[in-house]
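Thread: "does anyone have the structure for this chain?"

Original post by V.I.:
We have the sequence but no experimental structure in hand. Need at least a predicted one for the grant figures.
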Amino acid sequence: MSKIHPSAVVSTPHIGEGTAIWQFAIVLEGAVIGRDCNVNCHTFIEGGVTLGDRVTVKAGVYLWNGITVEDDVFIGPNVTFTNDRRPRSRRPVPPVPTLLRRGCSIGANAAIAPGITVGENALVGFSAVVTRDVPAYAMVYGNPARFQGWVDENGDAMEAAGEERFRAVDGRFFVAKASGLKLETTG
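Reply from O.Q.:
Generated one for you, tokens below.
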């Protein structure tokens, strides 16, 4: 069963089992929220937003139409998203889609430009200004956000283990591809 605080305004029936929506959150009709999510207080989710399972949305986050969040994503407090590259008052345009891939984390106060894809298990540091796609397993921070290294699913730094090859803390090896790191497979 979902837990929705009495002060929250939830206009969509698409709330997954075990999801908690806290004080003063607003979720518009058409939004889809998966199972076991935690939507903190003072958040806003428009109707064209999809959240996967086990997503955490911390306080002060507004998710606009066109944002898709896959499973196991963390969105820190006051992260800012946009969905229009040339905003003007009273000029409706289709939203520019933004995609947060499975397992990525976005640190507090980061700003994500429209049309960005943050790759699987990537880590965006606090207050980063993300103006380009973030590869899978990459760690970025700064203004503008720049590549700082590779991290595993827990956010632990990986070590170089040869050319285009990296080792996670648990001993697994990853290889660099254009889209980011991929787990090395044998056979």
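V.I.: this helps a lot. The chain has a mean pLDDT of 96.
O.Q.: and The chain is about 0% helix and 35% strand.
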